[in-house]
């Protein structure tokens, strides 16, 4: 499933929107999610899961090819924690 | 931000009623859940991909009592962040 499929399904299922409007709305939803996460704000979607930005400290790693030790710099990463509801839907539904 | 905050922001930006914005936002997540239930992979360009991973059964242990526990095979959703969002989150 791609974003185009989601747009198509929103257009078909909901009605009342042109394809253009459906596309703009779906784009908007993902853009708002991205802007929020870029501000390091957590996003909690009930029945789906939580997107959380985590701070990682710098640590020593190794170039696996040359085996040279290198420092992996501190960074922020995005993690997704699926909700209990989503997990159970994938397993008994 | 919760789903209702998201609905409010979308309603404000699109000039839709909160009800109407809510049906759109809910539909998007419902569609994604349905796709994952079917084991489908979801690709949202510049956001990330959702995949369903299959895990075989294993014998785990109750960490409190040390008793072995059989864990059945399961399917778990997995999210891999897309390049654009990954960089934005890291302030790049």
Characterise this structure.
The complex is a heterodimer of chains A (93) and B (92). Chain A has helices at residues 3-14, 19-38, 84-92, and strands at residues 43-45, 49-56, 59-62, 69-72, 75-82. Chain A is elongated, with a radius of gyration of 19 Å. In chain A, 44% of the residues lie in helices and 29% in strands. In chain A, the strands form 2 sheets. Chain A has a 3-stranded antiparallel sheet with strand order 1-2-5. In chain A, strands 3-4 form a two-stranded antiparallel ribbon. Chain A is of the alpha+beta class. Chain A contains 3 helices and 5 strands. Chain B has a 3-stranded antiparallel sheet. A two-stranded antiparallel ribbon of chain B has the order 3-4. The two termini of chain B are 22 Å apart. Helices cover 42% and strands 29% of the residues of chain B. Chain B has a single domain (3-90), classed as Irregular (HU Protein, Chain A), CATH 4.10.520. Chain B is built from 3 helices and 5 strands, in the order ααβββββα. The model of chain B has no long low-confidence stretch (mean pLDDT 95). Chain B has 92 residues and is α+β, with helices and mostly antiparallel strands. Classes of the chains: A alpha+beta (93), B alpha+beta (92). The interface between A and B is large, with 47 and 46 residues.
């Amino acid at each position: 499933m791609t974003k185009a499929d989601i747009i198509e399904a929103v257009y078909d299922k909901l009605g009342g929107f042109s394809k253009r409007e459906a596309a703009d709305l779906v784009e908007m939803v993902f853009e708002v999610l991205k802007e929020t996460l870029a501000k390091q704000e957590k996003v909690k979607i009930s029945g789906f899961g939580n997107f959380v930005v985590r701070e990682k400290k710098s640590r020593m790693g190794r170039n696996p090819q040359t085996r040279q030790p290198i420092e992996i710099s501190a960074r922020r990463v995005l993690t997704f924690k699926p909700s209990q509801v989503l997990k159970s839907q994938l397993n008994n539904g | 931000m919760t789903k209702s905050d998201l609905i409010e922001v979308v309603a404000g930006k699109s000039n839709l009623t909160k009800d109407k914005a809510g049906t759109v936002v809910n539909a998007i997540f419902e569609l994604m859940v349905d796709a994952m239930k079917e084991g489908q992979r979801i690709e949202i360009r510049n956001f990330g991909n959702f995949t369903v991973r299959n895990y075989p059964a294993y014998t785990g242990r109750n960490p409190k009592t040390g008793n072995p526990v059989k864990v059945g095979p399961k399917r778990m959703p997995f999210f891999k962040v897309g390049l654009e969002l990954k960089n934005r989150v890291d302030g790049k």
